[in-house]
Amino acid sequence: MRIINVTKQQALGNNIKVAATFFSRLVGLLATPSLSNGAGLMIKPCSSVHTMGMRYPIDVIFVDDSDRVVKVVMGLKPSRLASQWGAEYVIELPAGTIAATYTQKGDQLELQEAKDH
Q: Is the pTM above the cut of 0.90?
């Protein structure tokens, strides 16, 4: 999946995996050694995340059911929690993505399905 911040005309990620089952949401990014630029994880439904057991910081974007950003957390370090009441889903991205794309609360996102080549 590709996620675009249409407000800022910036791609947040071109290789975003979706965690929509209980098990995939439970595991999340725990099995990954790092996140490369353009990669990420959308967890749906979700309004809180943790980085227990992770070895690297991540950027977290909380999004409502209208695909509008309701909260951003830059550089969430390992062994931390973050949540936002009213979030429908969360996007976890490499640390630095939020700053690089100027993403902020109120921005409108667009989700695009990956095209098969």
A: yes
